[in-house]
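Structure record:
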Amino acid sequence: MVPTQKHPNSLSVEGTLIDVFDIAKHFNVHYRTAQRWTKNKWIPHYRVGKSIRYNLSEVMKAISSHAE
């Protein structure tokens, strides 16, 4: 068995990336609200092909900083 190696140029993202519906569910808002937060660049996101994904811990930090 050959050990797996991480590609030296790969992006390291802690945690799992989730979609807009999971963000909306977590914050108890409509998914369109989460899309608006993304469009207005209020929450960090990653584009994966045509999809947009979020790191929940990064989004939580961004939301808490907007609340202050």
User: Anything to note?
Assistant: Confidence is low (pLDDT under 50) at residues 7-13. The beta strands are 17-18, 46-48, 51-55. Helices lie at 20-27, 31-39, 56-67.
